[in-house]
Amino acid sequence: MTAPADLLVVHAAELATLATGSVPRRGAALADPGIVADGAVAASGGRITAVGPTEAVLRSVSRTPATTTVDASGRLVTPGLVDPHTHLVFAGHRAQEFTMRLHGAGYAEIDLVAMGRRRLDRMLAHGTTTVEAKSGYGLSMADELKILRATARLGASHAVGIVPTFLGAHAVPPERKADPDGYVRDVCELMLPAVVREGLAEFCDVFCERGAFSIEQSRRILSAAGRLGLRLKIHADQLSASGGARLAAELGALSADHLEHTPSDDLAAMAERGVTAGLLPGATFFLLHQNYADARAMVELGVPIALATDFNPGSSPTFSMQMAIALGCIGMRLTPAEALSAATINAAHAVGRAADAGSLAPGKRADLVIWGISSVAELPLHFGTNMADTVIVDGRVVIGGGRTT
Ligand code: FE
């Protein structure tokens, strides 16, 4: 008895499954993409039903007139990329936004959704099928809720899967500069409970940095979020060693992101507690900084690593996880296989989606990318060029031949 397949991808030169282990990959495990030569994937009802050598997969499933078969001869096939750190939803750019606020204008939710949709289309065309999206450009109860409601609307209507994060503590808004602790109190006592009441976020994040939020303030916000049942993330040590990574270890955050200035003791604390390092090389690159986060030290210390775009208007306006992979290799000395692990299965773990995304295994969402290259080793070579030819979400071809289908 063979199960009928809706979708068959066959004869991949390299099928990178990323399908070992139920915890984030560390150390040597990062370098094993789980390659199947002449590989195939079958899916039914949006879920993967079989993965393996083409011959074996074809024996285990049956084709019907409704089956879509994609020949991936000579090509690399990977899981859909997971972007675990973006600031997806904001209006215009910062200067404009600030002027708007001076004039008392709020965000229109409908405009936010339209802009978010165009950005998600670009990300999808570059092979990203799951995205974490932070609020944080509202900085008032009304505007933060509006951004998160727009995010929820995008999640319900776009092929890309969205993981929403509340980042009300992105910055102290200009009108609250005289009393930052008062703003922190509002985040803890007013904004967080409202966000949780509406079910608008899975994660809470804080920008922990001199000029933004101190360790003490960050601890207060993240502890309050944890008590309300949110999982935790933190922007840590981007511009200075501020203790953010250590705080992430103390609180058991799922990830600490940036880490350009994290001392090795604090990296060791992350490894010990299993906190994933969110690497954001696009920000280092675009800010013209020289010091990429020390990914090699992280791998050596056993810190799980994930790669992300940090898509945002100010410091990393790229949509492309392919660029994050290339910069992870060029700037941080990751190998292509390590970078792929960081951009798929480990990124999925970092956003709580490892049961659904990040690897090719039976039961998972059938999200995959068929590339215009033949091996994992080629992934960073054509930096700045979109090499994703076909993108499949939930077993449906959504981008084919580089175009939306
Ligand atoms: Fe960020």
From TrEMBL:
It catalyses: 4-imidazolone-5-propanoate + H2O = N-formimidoyl-L-glutamate. N-formimidoyl-L-glutamate binds at Y137, N312, G314. Residues 76-398 form the Amidohydrolase-related domain. Binds 1 zinc or iron ion per subunit. InterPro entries: Amidohydro-rel, HutI, Metal-dep_hydrolase_composite, Metal_Hydrolase. One of its GO terms (molecular function) is iron ion binding. Fe(3+) binds at H85, H87, H235, D310. Zn(2+) binds at H85, H87, H235, D310. This is Imidazolonepropionase. It is found in: Cytoplasm. Catalyzes the hydrolytic cleavage of the carbon-nitrogen bond in imidazolone-5-propanoate to yield N-formimidoyl-L-glutamate. It is the third step in the universal histidine degradation pathway. Its EC number is 3.5.2.7. Keywords: Cytoplasm, Histidine metabolism, Hydrolase, Iron, Metal-binding, Zinc. Its cofactor is Zn(2+); Fe(3+). Gene3D superfamilies: Metal-dependent hydrolases. 4-imidazolone-5-propanoate binds at R94, Y137, H170, Q238, S315. It is an enzyme of class 3 (hydrolase). Signal peptide: none annotated. Transmembrane segments: none annotated. Pathway: Amino-acid degradation; L-histidine degradation into L-glutamate; N-formimidoyl-L-glutamate from L-histidine: step 3/3. One of its GO terms (cellular component) is cytoplasm. GO terms for biological process: L-histidine catabolic process to glutamate and formamide; L-histidine catabolic process to glutamate and formate. Belongs to the metallo-dependent hydrolases superfamily. HutI family.
